[in-house]
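4.2 Preliminary Data

To establish feasibility before requesting continued support, the project team ran the inverse folding procedure on a target of 314 residues. The structure was first converted into the token representation described in Section 3, and no sequence information of any kind was made available to the design step. The complete token record follows.
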């Protein structure tokens, strides 16, 4: 599949070739069906959550406001990857334009960064709700919640802009085959014959700063949450308090774990097959799980869905 191997050729401004998940014809057709169904579930599930939260005034609280933003993020960042992957699987056209690749990488990183920060904001929200319930409305007003959400989105769009600019200036001359199923930072750096040390340093420093800040806020929040829950005398009270944050904690562990495994390491430790699998976890699995673990197990969301269903029936 490598059409050019002359290192004197620069492929900037032309097409890249995405390796995809597998070259086996049987897998391609099966994979198309599986990922199409997954994509439809992600779009329908997260769009339904956002719509119900906007429609039902009882859900106009900080927790559900953050959940609505999380659903929008999941829709956007899966939409930067899955449509192209589906096209590759069904048409076997593995090419993507140079700038199309840069934009795909940028929007995916932007949404991943925004989600990390939003998960931290949600952890803080749960800390205030459990540890300071009497001051919850004062500390987590809709105005303050909107401020946290806007901050997450703003930093998300701003952070990967440096990566996009620097990577767009690299020379890709040894190969134009991206050994991944989408344009990501590390696979792009692997096929560049330029000095990528500056990009790697920025990737590590910025990633470490944002991840560590969000992680510390989340960790501290849960330390206080757990210490408060332990002090609750009633078993039912402890169970109810923990149930309000267990779903969020599950997503945090999976999301942070995969992000750290992928990005907080040098490119020399890059293993394509392993990293494709890990990427699938946070690019596909988490957006599928979010509607289930955050909403379908939530009694208030169930009630809102049933109310909407009954009104539509009449």
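Position-by-position output of the design step:
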């Amino acid at each position: 599949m490598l059409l050019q191997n002359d290192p004197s050729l620069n492929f900037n401004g032309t097409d890249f070739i995405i390796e995809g998940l597998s070259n086996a014809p049987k897998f391609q057709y099966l994979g198309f069906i599986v990922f199409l169904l997954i994509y439809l579930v992600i779009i329908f599930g997260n769009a339904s959550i956002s719509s119900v939260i906007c429609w039902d005034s009882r859900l106009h609280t900080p927790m559900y406001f953050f959940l609505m933003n999380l659903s929008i993020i999941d829709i956007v960042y899966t939409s930067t990857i899955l449509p192209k992957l589906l096209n590759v699987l069904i048409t076997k056209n593995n090419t993507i334009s140079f700038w199309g690749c840069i934009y795909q990488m940028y929007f995916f990183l932007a949404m991943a960064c925004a989600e990390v920060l939003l998960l931290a904001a949600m952890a803080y929200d749960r800390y205030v709700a459990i540890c300071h319930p009497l001051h919850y409305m004062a500390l987590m007003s809709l105005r303050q919640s909107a401020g946290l959400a806007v901050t997450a989105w703003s930093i998300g769009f701003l952070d990967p802009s440096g990566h996009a600019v620097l990577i767009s200036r690299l020379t890709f001359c040894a190969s134009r085959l991206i050994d991944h199923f989408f344009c990501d930072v590390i696979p792009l750096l692997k096929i560049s014959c330029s000095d990528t040390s500056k990009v790697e340093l920025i990737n590590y420093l910025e990633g470490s700063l944002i991840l560590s800040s969000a992680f510390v806020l989340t960790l501290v929040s849960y330390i206080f949450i757990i210490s408060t829950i332990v002090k609750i005398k009633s078993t039912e009270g402890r169970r109810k308090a923990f149930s309000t944050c267990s779903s969020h904690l599950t997503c945090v562990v999976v999301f942070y774990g995969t992000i750290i495994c992928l990005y907080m390491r040098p490119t020399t430790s890059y293993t394509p097959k392993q990293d494709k699998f890990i990427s699938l976890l946070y690019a596909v699995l988490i957006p599928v799980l979010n509607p289930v673990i955050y909403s379908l197990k939530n009694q208030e969301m169930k009630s809102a869905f049933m109310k909407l269903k009954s009104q539509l029936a009449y």
